[in-house]
Amino acid sequence: MVDRRLPRPGEILPLIGRRDRSLTRLQARLERCASIGDIRELARRRVPRSVFDYTDGAAGSELTLRRSVEAYSRVEFTPRVLRDVSSVDLSVEMLGRRSALPFALGPTGFTRMMHHVGEPAVAKVAGEAGIPYALSTLGTTSVEALAQAAPGTRRWFQLYVWRDRVASEALVKRVELAGYDTLILTVDTAVGGIRLRDVRNGLTIPPQLTLSTLAGMALYPRWWGNLLTTRPLEFASLSSTGGTVGDLLTKVFDPAITGADITWLRSIWPGKLVLKGVQSVEDAVIAVDLGVDAVILSNHGGRQIDRGNVPLEILPSVVDAVGDRIEVYVDGGITCGADIVAALAFGATGALIGRGYLYGLMAGGEDGVRRVVSILEKEIRTTMQLLGVTSVGELDRSCVRLR
User: Fold this and answer.
1) Which residue range forms the structural domain that includes residue 59?
2) I want to staple 126 with a disulfide (CB 3.0 to 4.6 A). Which of 133, 136, 159, 220 is the partner?
3) Which is catalytic among the residues 300, 303, 355, 370?
4) SS3 letters for the chain?
């Protein structure tokens, strides 16, 4: 027999969940997001489809993007046990300075389209976390405005070489004067990739008010209200030329860039110089010979060439070839902190995150970006503890393999 009784109020009340009144409703929703995937789904519901697809999509059939993500799904860790992991150091040396976490917030274009707060909010979160933030040439905040908004953040600048070399040099000088310490030259954009989602959605730069977009205002009034009541949505470092982002890349950026341009850039830039978009061992070796400080193995998030190389898969070979002479970073396909740990174990100096924090920006502005960084930090820390390592320096290939 079971002895039953009526529950007492004092026993029920502690079981009733209460929202933390110190949090806004949006902050509470973000706190309930347990992964970047959860943040992505929240972002999908808060912005127009064309805006979400601009971030979420890739070039062509999007095979490069899917394969980049799939590569991390094949990672298999080898945990070690009976080790004291009560204290874990997540910091790493990045281009001459210590970063509190083994990743940076990478450069992304047209960031204020995702949320009107744009790049300054992202840079502020990076500063709070003690990690670098890279502003893009296609950013919607000027180098000077970002420096003023986030003076305590370590700032990098991502550069595309324009057909107009005089304008390119003037921009580099502005970056130097504004206190940025690292220049990241993207070299995988000889022409713009064919991003079919943008074409099908009719997304132009800047967005046009068509009948379909006007109809969409009823579904996303907050996003449209912010767009129309803040400063015009435009690139801060160059004039918009109309068409999709792929069209703009083709019209403005120089397809004739060679190693000679790297030498020229080194002659006018006194800080650290990084090549982003390296996708082969051979080009990594050339980068070393050109005197750069680091390479970023990147397929542009799958947004340039379709069926391109997967950064994680070529990472070990590149590290073996040049890792004792320059730093090697990786981006693309990273969806969680465990992915970053895997890249570090395969020899990467660090990782760059793009889509992940843009999902956070779309989902909740600055608070959304902050939540993404918090999720990644927890996942990195937990993965390292479960692997039995207490510092990034202990991660090596004995910890990991691809199935």
Assistant:
1) 38-402
2) 133
3) 300
4) CCCCCCCCHHHHHHHCCCCCCCCCHHHHHHHCCCCHHHHHHHHHHHCCHHHHHHHHCCCCCCHHHHHHHHHHHCEEECCCCCCCCCCCECCEEECCEEECCCEEECCCCCHHHCCCCHHHHHHHHHHHHCCCEEEECCCCCCHHHHHHHCCCCCEEEEECCECCHHHHHHHHHHHHHCCCCEEEEECCCCCCCCCHHHHHHCCCCCCCCCHHHHHHCCCCHHHHHHHHHCCCCCCCCCCCCCCCHHHHHHHHECCCCCHHHHHHHHHHCCCEEEEEEECCHHHHHHHHHCCCCEEEECCHHHCCCCCCCCHHHHHHHHHHHHCCCCEEEECCCCCCHHHHHHHHHCCCCEEEECHHHHHHHHHHHHHHHHHHHHHHHHHHHHHHHHHCCCEHHHCCHHHEEEC
